[in-house]
Amino acid sequence: MSPVLNALTIGSSQFSVLLFYTLLVFALYATLGAFIWLKPLEVAKKPYLTWAIMIPLLMLPLWLGASVWVFAVLLISVYGFKEFAKGTGLYEKKAYCVVVYIAMILMAATSILRDYGMFMAVPIWGVAALTTIPVFTNRFENAIQNIALSVIGLVYFGWFLGHLGMLAQSTYGLGYVLYVLIFTQFNDAMCFLWGKLFGKTPFTHISPKKTLEGSMLALLSSILIAYLNWPIAFPHFEWWLVALAAIVISFGGQMGDLVMSSFKRDLGIKDFGTLLPGHGGILDRVDSLVWVAPLFFHMVRYFHAGFGS
Predict the structure, then answer these.
(1) 3-state class of 216 per DSSP?
(2) pTM
């Protein structure tokens, strides 16, 4: 097959994937809405309505191309770090925040350029730059705390989330990104719904409303969904890798949520912000993706490559 014909075939395939998942998102949204209102689940109504705004804002960049999507991920990372910095008091330390923002911009640029090596290197140099700030500012008060908080921001909200941009740079990139976006949120919803319906056994005081029954039923739901998505999102995966993708979504999503919950409990806050009614801030909505994005990316790269050297 000629390179031109191959490119056209890939383009057509990715368009079909994007169209399918766009229609699926709206179908799932309508179905979930019917369930919430018929049950009824009053606590879920406000978050559900907020999704009416978030869904178009997430889907439009994917329709506009991989570079636009990387820029959208950058905006989410920057705003997420801003929420974290304000919650921890780091926001008043402008030099640290500026270095983190610059590192995030550089990571986004490496994603657009598909430079995997530099994408992996920028966080390391970013951390190194953060450690020099007390030297250049000649201020050492709380230096260790400020550096530590900045490193969490850079790695967690810049690099971890930045993998969502790198995921889009593969032949099957749209399938990867859409599967991760949609079904990480689906897993969150299943944890909540199954927990409400069948949950009896809390398993962590970090998030007392989470139940063992809800988590296990969400995992089983994610495995079933992964196999239903096999021919569309990742038709080249082996059968066992499909199961692993589901485990990454379920385990990573719940771990990301719990880690962020531990941060909030330590800070004594309920949410990181108020931007999204019924959800809190950006970080309260993307906390599950923080873990899922790098886990899924490196799983795919290890077994199927496609992201540069």
Answers:
(1) helix
(2) 0.90
